[in-house]
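New to this. Look over this protein:
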Amino acid sequence: MHSHVSEIVTRNISEQQQSLLAALRKACKKIAPVWPLENFVAVNPYLGLADHPFNSAAELLTQAGGIQMTLPVSFYLEALEQGRIQPVDVREALFKNDPAAHQKAAEFIQSVHSIKDSGKPQAGVSTVADVITEVSGKDWGRFVTDRISAWAATYFDNGQALWATANQKTNLYAAWKEEAQVDRTPAIMGLSGFNKLVKSLPEVPIDGARFALEQLHVPQEGLALYLHRLLLRVGGWSAYAARIDWDNELYGGKDGALIELLCVLLCWEACLLECLDDYKVKEQWKEARMELTVQSSGSQSNHLLAQKLMLQQAFDRAAQRSLIEKFANQPRDKPVYKPQTTVQAIFCIDVRSEVFRRNLELVAPKVATLGFAGFFAFPINYIPLGHEQGNAQCPVLLPTGPVILEEIPEPLLHKRAIQSRRLRHHVRRAWKSFKLGAISCFSFVGPVGLLYLPKLFTDSFGLTRPVPHPESEGIKPGLFEQRTVSLEVGRHKHETVGIPLNEQIQLAKSALQAMSLTEDFARLVLMVGHGSTTVNNPYATGLDCGACGGHTGEANARVAAAVLNEAAVRNGLEGEGITIPEHTYFIACQHDTTTDEVTLFNEREIPPSHQEEVAELRQRLREAGHAARTERALRMDIDTTGDLDALIKARSKDWAQVRPEWGLAGCSAFVVAPRHRTQGINLDGRSFLHSYEWKKDRGFKVLELIMTAPMVVTSWISLQYYASTVDNQYFGSGNKTLHNVTGGIGVLEGYAGDLRTGLPWQSVHDGKQYQHEPLILNVVIEAPLEVMNLILKKHESVRQLCDNGWIHLLAMDEQGQVSHRYTGEFEWEAVGK
């Protein structure tokens, strides 16, 4: 991890510098972080604007970067024609913005038919690069982006490059200055004196920014908008630098990386203006500065954007109305049918689990399912077998907890497995160096490349995987199946590992209380994590568990099961008022969301007394998997006349498959209530489901945890898909088939350009229609209104999400009906009134 705590935040600076630093930091806080591909987690790309109302954020992004927050008008017109948006939805949207205008719904609908909307992004405020582009007819903005990106890829490189050009040992600004002094590309493009000018720049980042602004004469009134515009110019690398700051601050450090990048961008602007000493450029830049001041005043209104935002609100209301009706169609006081439950299965709240859970309950009435965040309240740092460093297996909102080692119980086999994995790792790195070496690569394809033909053939026909699965790579299958977790406290390298007994008891208590599972335990309790199986997919971790930091939930499920099966932990839990029967056994499992297969991990330790139930469970899981695959096949447009199971499983090994699964596309709701409220309702794999019983929640600490963690995380996921749909050019990552991994941390679309963030187009659109439609997340919670208000008052950041329209908060009554809608400022309105 890069630690960019530079002079910019550590040295004593003058009052003038402090003022400028504050302005730079304020602009940087508007940029949401993005995580690298190795743990690509969903992030709300509007995170830095959450303190703005949704509509205001849309106006700001349009001004600063020509970024869209709605689809073209044609999308909403089609929804109106299909009846998906009803006049009542338009009236409610109009009333929300202007109570006097709701009577004019028909007039508004008629007016939008005449809107001319090309669907293309509107131009934002201009930078120097934009002005020079307009004057010269050459795309200098693209040139600057390409140079920044080429340098940033080497500076942030995470081990992909064989040759590193940037100095990673110094701070970001100094590293750029060092390389830009010798980069001949600007001079070749006509920037005479560029290298000499860079060399003359101040050595301290904040001084470099001050010098640049003095040369640019940016008006103070327009400074904030201009700085935001610069960051959005290279939004991908800005987001990556923001992630470095996020991690530093999460663990008690300071920011600095993104501020330094902004100083670099300012220096680029000043150097452009100085090197291209052109009268027309300077005159037009003067006009651009005046326009910057006007735009910053907010005196100009965007009528087209206002209408599109109104249509989006109507579309949101239509989806909300449909969700409310699903619960309304259920009989009030629906009897809670509880058969003799023999198995309780705790799944992640992930929307893909909803499909499997529903089908499992259908084929296995004696199985009761629950929903909980997939890290199972065990925020661990998990070190896989043979690895030196671990993975943070918890939401990125949380710091990691105890360090856990993966092991094989038999010491000799454990040693052999580690040696085998490390040997294969070294051989693979040496082989890669040989293939890509400056000399050896020329002779590789001829005599050596032919050896790849058989493997190429079997890979192409899906008979084998093009690459080993990263979790099992280097370990023989027999040994791989014997892996377990070590809870024993000890030392590994320079850190303490394991979990002390008292901490195990408290973790177990917190987990069971948060799951509303403190009594009536079944004989078998499944801890079902989830992951995906794909190949040739840079975004593979984006299909794994977001609650586990972009990794599979296997590690968390193993640790949770091991702790809850420990006799000493159960004895300790009895003192906390939780009694787990002796006959209850916890099984760690993993649901493969690509193939809908479920793997049982710790079955070697399952008591003989439970083997018969386990055998029946396996059969029911297979049946549920087939039913889930059949349901998902319809959405993936797979021919169901053939061997459906084989076709879907083949997709997981097909290196040409751009849509091995739909991931969380379509997510639009989050229901926090007992399972019997949603049982029997087909939510189409579009709803996160969290089990919660408020009457068991003393002090409402569990509800507070849900509203400040899972609710926030699900809104991040929803808004990532939202943004990747409405403006894939900026917030998405474009065409998946053109991706090139850069620096081992992200992708470029093609050979150059900015680091891409968000989701590929193929993850939200199937070529004919949207598989994810832009909808603000509807959160339905069964809990008293006054309690939810208290939690909102206590947590300002959560209240902002609800008050500013980034989340639609709904309340469920004790009959299972959606009864109230949150309207902001701790006020609620009755649904349907």
